[in-house]
Structure formats: structure tokens, C-alpha cells
Amino acid sequence: MIWMFILLFSLIFKLNILSIILNFEMIMIFIFISMYNMKSKILMLMLIFLIISEGVVGLVFCMKWAFIYCNLKISSNNLSKL
Description:
mitochondrion; 0% strand; 3 helices
């Protein structure tokens, strides 16, 4: 459980939203491992749902910024041709 404290403490120093999402993902995986040892099935299923939904949120976040970056890159190429 010391790893959970280290991960939660390191959240204070995260500046990038993607690193915060990945840090929460690692925390949830550690919670999942500890619940697997306790054999708590309902909580494990809820945590699996949380891990999957947070992964989807992270992917959507990355796709959004990649789309914005590609649009900015395309528009700058069009401006340089003028």
C-alpha cells in the first residue's frame, strides 16, 4: 500500500492532464490488485468499469488534442502557400 501513497503524493507535482490521467490509472490498477486479493467481486467489477472508462476518457482527450494540432498544422501550411 506504500505505492498507493507514493502515487497519490506524486499527483501534487503533475502539471500535464495526461500524466494525471495515467497516474490515476496506475492507482486504480493497484486498488484492483488489492481487491483481487480480498476477493471482493462487486467492487472489482466496479473498478474494472472505472479503469475502462478512464482509459476511454484519456484516449478521447489525446484524440482531441491531436485533431487540434493537425488542424493547426494544416492551416499553417495553407497560410504559408499564400
